[in-house]
Amino acid sequence: MCGRYALHSHDGIKLPGLRTFDLPFEARYNIAPTQNVLVIGNFGNGPEGRLLAWGLIPSSSTDGKPFINARAETLEQRRSFSESFRQRRCLIPADGFFEWKRSGRAKRPFYLQSRNGSLLTFAGIWDSWRNGVQLVTSCAIITTAANELVGELHHRMPAILPPELHDAWLNPTTNRVQLLRMLTPFPSSLMKMHPVSSSVNSTENDTVDLLVRVDAEVGQTPSLF
Predict the structure, then answer these.
(1) Where are the beta strands (DSSP E) in 118-200?
(2) Cα(224)–Cα(193) distance, rounded to whole angstroms?
(3) What is the pLDDT of residue 45?
(4) Would you say 159 and 142 are in contact if contact means Cβ atoms under 8 Å apart?
């Protein structure tokens, strides 16, 4: 799954094949569901960047329940996701994401990022839901099976798209078979991870210190990583 990530580039986002997106957003180190997140999508006038609520509410929803993740394996089968997968795909840039490793009753947070420090780009879907006069436009991150590295922590991970697939993912004419083939585990060899402070557990904390390596906290045994 993906329930927390970071995006701290403040000089604009440039994705290969697309123009530079320079939106006024603050550096974020602990982005959480329900918050507004930067999304690149085709909203009617070609690819553009927008801030959408993280937690997809399908247009067909009767209760407004949000979905923060959508499993790649069931995108076409689930009514909540199938139409968005066909017509409303998006890219969600991140500098890295967090995952937790369970050890007994305790859970230890880790930060995962690209090995060379470049942006990771999550595959996503979006939709708009109307509740009376209120219109909520929201998104979900697509997840796939974990690669070997992430699998040390969790069995799921975000579907990460390499730069050469960005255009095709946003292109409304791309064949569904091609789209599904894109949603495979990102290579472990292109990623790295390290343990971080348990301060990331609280969404109230949002500072660069959350990304710093912390091998052992007071009262904890040293990490094996």
Answers:
(1) 120-131, 134-145, 156-158, 191-195
(2) 12
(3) 80
(4) yes
Q: How many angstroms separate the CA atoms of 26 and 42, rounded?
A: 23
Average pLDDT over residues 155-165: 95
Residues linked to residue 192 through DSSP beta bridges, in sequence order = 113
- Tokens for 40, please give them: 């690149």
Residue 164 is a catalytic residue: no
Which of these is catalytic: 83, 99, 139, 217? 99
What is the rounded average pLDDT for all residues in the chain? 90
User: Which of the following is catalytic: 2, 83, 152, 204?
Assistant: 2
* pLDDT for residue 104: 79
Mark 55-77 as b/e (b = at least 16 C-beta within 10 Å).
bbbbeebeeeebbbbbbbeebee
Give catalytic status of residue 2 as yes or no.
yes
Query: Is the pLDDT confidence value at 36 over 50?
Result: yes
Fold classification of 5-99+115-191 is: hypothetical protein yedk fold (3.90.1680)
